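Hey, can you fold this one?
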Amino acid sequence: MKPTSFIARRYLFSRKHISLISTLTLISILGITIGTALLIVVLSVFNGFFDVIKSILLSYDPDIRIEYRHGKSFTFDDQQYKLLRGIPEIRNISPFAEGKGLVVREDGQKQVIEVKGVHKDSFFQLRQQQSEIKQGVNDLGVKNGSPGLLGGSMLLSRLGLEVGDQVSILSAAGMRKSLTHFSIPRIYRFEVRGQYSIDKIMDESVVFIDLEAAQRLFDYRNKITGVDIALQNSSQAEEVKERVQSRLGPDYLVKTWYDLQKPLYDVMYLEKWGAFLILMLIVLVAVLNIVGSLTMIVIQKNRDIGVLRTLGFGPAAIKRIFFKQGLYVGVIGCLIGGGLGLFLSWLQKTYKLIGLSSSFIIDAYPVSIQPTDILIILAGSLLLSLAASWYPALRASKIEPADAVRYE
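Sure. Predicted structure:
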């Protein structure tokens, strides 16, 4: 055992008597423990909410989406599909054509909606949640002269539509063309085949129709507005994005699931790390007690420091003694607080001790423990503890043997 480590422990944990110094040391350890535990619990809850929101949005958003930089619609040929299929991480590719439309009921009721034309076979494999049909079937093909349509439960409820009803859809492009050509706008009729429901927080104003029907509706002439891609693992999105971009070239805009909802995800990250900085103030207050307790130890052990200097301990060795005291306080607080925080997080994740309202999309506060967050919290607490030891250690290293003995 190094002499500096032995002396640091004797100074810090001496059981000779209970003093103000030992009380301040205990307060420092307690503060670091509480702060570390709170940080782990709060950041784990933020991670849990992020995962919940991500899973809900990914029930509609793809892992990667390809769009055209120079216009809304574009042609995507077999050669480009072949380039994408050559990437092993890609599980599914689904082209789509979307745009605004005006849905008209037989009684004249109207509403502006988002129409998305898809390949049924590829689209409903993209995300399993999207095939959750609450009523009817996900058949978009032509039957009895009418193509099929899938509508969200909230939208169909507002329009008073049920499975089997007929609706008419007019595109914005069709209305514009009728005005410029002084002709009657072309209206397309669809049969409601199914009713889907994604989640309570999702806007279900999107209706799904067959891709070819959408191309006729929007007059795209075999063009599409984007390509959705599902990956084997969503965490690979950023890496695969770069490879897709390099293969397709600069004319295409490639977005990951994060890019598609970037403002929302950025706000959630901002809230998480804002809470981290605020809670770190608890640890900061605790480590300020380290400054006081170590400074008092320096004053109390003034003569001992002088004796150590005469025995050959240089200023650097004296400084290490007090640095190690601060390190011991930080390590103890981090170990106890880290263990407590992980235990509380595990309890919430396993037994859902703190619940939420029954009207919410989940029944309890979600928890997701990320090792990176734990390392950042523990490293931050230890660094603050070492920083608090700097002034007392510097002061102790400047004590001269003659002065220490003279004023004893």
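The chain is about 55% helix and 20% strand. Let me know if you want another pass with a different chain boundary.
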